[in-house]
Design brief:
2 domains, about 20% helix, 10 strands, globular, Alpha-Beta Plaits, about 260 residues, ten-stranded mixed β-sheet, alpha+beta
Amino acid sequence: MRLAIGLEYDGTRFMGWQRQPHPVPTVQACVEAALADVANHPVEVTCAGRTDAGVHANGQVVHFDTQAQRTERGWLLGVNSNLPEDVAVRWLREVPEDFHARFRARARHYRYTIVNRETRPALTRRRATWVHASLELEAMQTGARHLLGEHDFSAFRAVECQARSPVRTVQRLEVRRVGERVIVDVVADGFLHHMVRNIAGALIAIGAQKHPADWTRTLLQGRDRRLGGVTAPPQGLCLVAVLYPSAYGIPVPEDAMFGDLSANL
């Protein structure tokens, strides 16, 4: 039997999603241990997107296989009772054997949150990045528009990125201000290592008037990460949602910004 679960977690204390060969806290190891305790056998999970150290998730999707017979309520209560307070299962359901959390995903939505004010934040310090310089929203929005569509994102991926191709399609990229927060929402068919944080870093530089609004277009054309500026800190980044074909019945969080994309699945 194959099961899918929806996870939310605060990534502050974790060294990323992926289990490590040495004993460091990771979300994967934590989730597998909790599931194994309920299933009464070892469990290996596969996620939709491997988040980095310090990055959060509201709509991470994971699948695993099991022979254990439990009710949905039994799984939810049992696993959550074995998870630490900064990780929680939101939902669980049985899925067809061909479901794959990573390879069946059609789009992913990440959100980068910036607190833009003169004084540093206390309450949101672990969930947002602080930028004290005033950010020009219109310039950031113009810079974001250059990144829409299918492009070679070599200038926006980490040097150690292992993806075979740097080409990705950004389906939606919106920058908005909500009070003292500047929020960057990115929806794409897939992401390269550090891609969203590098996009956020470039847009912050544009907003702070360190570069013109068309700098993002110049970076795309140059395809050189060394010219791409600073990678934005991890704490501002959150995996909001993952979109799958409707036949799988995977829930989508209310604040996901897939729009018309879901109508085609």
